[in-house]
Amino acid sequence: MKRIIACLFLFFSSTTLVWAVSSSYPLDSVEIDLNDKASLQRGAQVFVNYCLSCHSAQYMRYSRMAEDLGLTEEQVTDNLMLTTDKIHDTMTIAMKPGDAERWFGVTPPDLSLVARSRGPAWLHTYLRTFYLDPNRPTGVNNLVFKDTAMPHVLWPLQGWQQLADKEGEAHSTELELAVEGTLTPSEYEQMLDDLVNFMTYVGEPARLEREKLGPWVLLYIALFCGVAYFLKKEYWKDIH
């Protein structure tokens, strides 16, 4: 029993420590709206164009995405798929894990559940806080995930950021734009909102259906409670 208690103590202590480390940088405030199909469609386009070359989403099927996002199969086939993919395929990649590890030092993880494991706020902040670092193999680092192996694939949109040089601060965490991208900072923020919104949907596609079904379930419970109350009164009236 003492060993079990000690193991539990170490587990919760290490979990708290990891959470504290990962939460040292303040996370962005993110509003997720899975009913905004236009946002989900824009996010899907960004995901396919910039993420799907290295990261898979192997638990999501193109056909399911078409149905949930209000797209036709032809729209998905023409705009969100490679010519070698089929509409009922999952969102996998052609890059082999061995090649990925040799090029990046680590195999890029599947992103199907990253929004559930990390959280939308973490994702949004992570994709916003890349900065130039000549000491890293990819030339960039990240304020949320220090020494990340991932290159800044969204740099054509955001541009290049650098740590602000502030007097009296040895390690500044404030970023400034060194080279402009094709999007303004506000446009980049909107693009990240759409991308994170889509990745949140990918993490739990059934959430859309559950949210639609929820009010009907609550209505059923309310009606059943009313019927049960009157049945109870009728059953116990001779006793009371």
From TrEMBL:
Transmembrane residue ranges: 213-231
Record GO cellular component, one term: membrane
Domain Cytochrome c, residue spans: 38-206
GO MF terms held by the record: electron transfer activity; heme binding; metal ion binding
Protein name in UniProt: Cytochrome c1
Primary location group: membrane
Keyword Transmembrane helix: yes
Species of provenance: Nitrosococcus halophilus (strain Nc4)
Keyword Nucleus (UniProt): no
Location of the protein in the cell: Membrane
Cofactor(s) annotated in UniProt: heme c
Keyword entries, A-Z: Heme, Iron, Membrane, Metal-binding, Signal, Transmembrane, Transmembrane helix
InterPro entries: Cyt_c-like_dom, Cyt_c-like_dom_sf, Cyt_c1
Signal sequence, start to end: 1-20
